[in-house]
From TrEMBL:
UniProt source species: Chryseosolibacter histidini
Cofactor annotation: Mg(2+); Zn(2+)
Gene3D superfamilies reported in the protein's UniProt record: ATP-dependent DNA helicase RecQ, HRDC domain, P-loop containing nucleotide triphosphate hydrolases, Winged helix-like DNA-binding domain superfamily/Winged helix DNA-binding domain
Name used for this protein in its record: DNA helicase RecQ
HRDC domain span: 531-611
SUPFAM superfamilies to which the protein is assigned, alphabetical: HRDC-like, P-loop containing nucleoside triphosphate hydrolases, Winged helix' DNA-binding domain
The UniProt record lists the keyword Transport: no
Biological process per Gene Ontology, one example term: SOS response
Family annotation (PANTHER family): ATP-DEPENDENT DNA HELICASE Q1 (PTHR13710:SF105), DNA HELICASE RECQ FAMILY MEMBER (PTHR13710)
Amino acid sequence: MLVEEKDALKERLKEIFGYSQFRGNQERIIRNLLDGRNTFVIMPTGAGKSLCYQLPAMINDGLAIVISPLIALMKNQVDQMNAYGVNARFLNSTLSKGEITRLKKECMNGNVKLLYVAPESLNKEETIEFLKKVNVSFVAIDEAHCISEWGHDFRPEYRRIKSMIHNLGEMPVIALTATATPKVQIDIQKNLQMEEADVFMSSFNRKNLYYEVRPKKETKKQLIKFLKDNKGKSGIIYCLSRKKVEEIAQLLNVNGFKAAPYHAGLDPDVRMKNQDDFLNEEVDIICATIAFGMGIDKPDVRFVVHYDVPKSLEGYYQETGRSGRDGLEGHCLMFYSHNDLSKLEKFNKDKPVQERENARILLQEMEYYAESPVCRRRQLLHYFGEEFKEENCGMCDNCVHPRERFDGTDYVQLVLRSVKQTNERFGLNHLVHVIRGVEDEYVKSYGHFDLEVYGKGGDEDADFWKSVIRQTLIFQYLEKDIDNIGALKITQKGEEFLKNPYAIELARDHDFTTEIEEEEESAEKAPVSAKSYDVKLFELLKNLRKKIAKEKNLPPYVIFQDPSLEEMATTYPTTKEEMAQVNGVGMGKVNKFGKEFLEVIEKYVEDNDIETASEVVVKSSVNKSKTKISIIQQIDRKIDLEEIAESTRLTFEDLLTEIENICYSGTKLNLNYYIDQVLDAHKQDDIHDYFMSAETDSLEHALNDDSIADYSEEEIRLMRIKFMSEYAN
Ligand code: ADP
Ligand code: ZN
C-alpha cells in the first residue's frame, strides 16, 4: 500500500512537472502537508521550495492560498504554473475591480487550484469574506522570515497573517523560508502559533561556492582584475546605491565588459530589458542593487561580487546563493571596509529605536564575519544554526590562506570562567570588560570587580578578546541564549573543556583598519584568492626566472619571490617605475633583473590586448613607516643592531623582522659591519653556501637543515639578510 502511494506521488510529480525524482526533503514535506500537519520548511534558495506547496495544491481538493510578499514575482510564478497546465491566479493591488470580480467567481466555481495573495490584500475585510466562501485546502506562507523583526526583511503586515487566516477555519499551514537564524525560526513559529509544526531543515551548505572577503581598497582595479580572470562568465555585482550601480556598470563597459545596470530607479522597460539581456546572455554582468535577483533562476551565474558591504548575513547569503545554482563554480567575493559599516549605520538613523537596534545587531554580525579568521562556511552555517564538521572546507579564503594560529587554550578557559562567574547572564562587551578589568558602570553595579577572573586578561586589547569570544562561540564552547538577547551561555562542550582542558588553536582577526596607512603590510595580509592573478603570465615569468637563475647560478627565489611574480601577473607592469612598485621589488632589483621580465610582460600584454597597470589606477608609492626609515638610516651609519633596537624600542627579534621586511621589499642593506663582529668568515661561508644551494629561503627549512644545524636562528637570519641584499637587491 505504502509503496503504491509513494509511486502515485511520484507519478503526479512526473505528470505535472516532468521531474522524475524529488529533491532533498521535498517528498517528506509534501506528505506531511497532505497528512494535514503544520509544516515549517527551511531550505536554501534554489533547493525547490515552491514545489512543496505547488504539488499538494494539485493533489488536494479545493484551493491553496500562497501568501507571498513579492508582487512583482507573483505574475512570473503564476505564468510558470499556467505553463504547466495548472490553474493558478494571483490577487494583489495590480488587479482592476472587474478582474477581481471575475477571479472571485472562478475561485468559487472550484476551478482555481492555487491563489497567490499579497499580505496587504489579505488584510482586507472583503478578501477574507470572499475566502470564507471558498474551499481552502491549506495556506502556504512563502518568505516566512518576513514575519520576524529579528530577521533582515521584516514586513509588519506579515505579523497579522495568523489572525487573518484564523478566520478561514481549520486547515494546515506550511511556512517556507530560505533564511532563518535559530532566533528567527522560533519567532516565526510563535507568531504563526505553530510551535508544534514539523520542521524540515535542509543543510545550508553550498559546497560549490567559494567565499572570499577582500579589503575595499583600490576596489575598481581589483574588480577589473577579477572580471578579467572571469571574462565571458555570467555574474552579478551588488552595490548599495543606484548611483554606484550606474557608475560601476559604466566603468565596466568602458573597460570592455558587457554589463548592464539594474535598480528600482530605472524605467521599468529598461529594467526588464536589462534583466532579460542578462538571462539571455546578451550581457555577462549585471550591476544591481539588492532589488535584483529575487526569483531569478539563472543556473550558471559564476560569480557574485558585493562591491559594498551588505546589510546582513541573511541578505549576503541569499545574494551569494544566486551563484552556482547548477552545482558548478560560484565565486562569492565581498569588498569590505569599516567605512561602509558606518554608512549603513547612518541609513538607520531615522528608524524606530527597536528597528534600529535590530539593524545594528545584523550589521555587527556582518562585521564579525568579515574580520574573522574562521572558515567562512563554518561561520555562515553557524549563523543559520548548523554545525560544519570539517576542519578545513578548502573553499574559502580563510581555509585556502589560513591565518597564523596560536595556542588559545588559556584564553578560552578564561573566557569560559568569566561566563560562569557572571552566571551566564551577560553579552560579549561586558565579558570583555570583566576580563580586561575595565571598571565601567555595569561592572560596578554588579560588583564584578570582585570576581576571580576580573582583569586577568588585561594584557590583550578589547578586539583581541572579542575575537576570542567569537571563536569560542563558533566552535560551540559558548552559545547564544535565545531567551535573553545577547547573553552567552556555556555549552556541554564548553563544560567538558573546562573540566578537562585540551589544546585549542585560535587565530587573529583580519585587520582592516590599517589598510590605508600600511600599504605594504595590508597587501601582504589581504586574502588573495588562489586565482586572482594571471596564471598564464605567472607561468611565463616563473620559467624566465628559472632560466635566469640557471644562467646566473643563483637560486630562483633570489631573483624574484613568488608573491612578486603573482603581483606582476596582476598589475602587468611594463616600465621600470611600475615594476619597482611591486611588493618585494625595489629599483635596485629592477635594474639588476628587471629587463627581461619587462620584455616578457610587454609582449604578453600586447599579444593579449591587456590593459596595464598604468591604465588602471597606479598604486601609490610605498609608504615607509618612520621606524623603517630610522632603521635604514642607522644601518647606513653602521650602528650596532642592539643599539638600533634600543632606540627604536624593538626587541632584537622584532628588529630583525623589520630589517627582513625592508630587505624583502627591495631595499639593499649592508649589515657586514655588524655580521663581521658576530660571525667569523668561515661560519659566514657555511650559511652562505646553504642559501646558495637551497630551494627556498624559508627560515624553517634552514633551521631544519643538517648542514647548518650548529647555527642559531639569529645567525641564520642575519646571513639570510646579507645574502638577499647582495644577490637579490
Ligand atoms: P526556491 O524557491 O527554493 O529558491 P524553486 O522552487 O524556485 O527554489 O526551485 C528551484 C529550481 O529547481 C526550479 O527551477 C525548479 O523547477 C527546480 N526543481 C524543484 N524541484 C525539483 C525536482 N524535484 N527535480 C528537478 N528540479 C526541481
Ligand atoms: Zn573554509
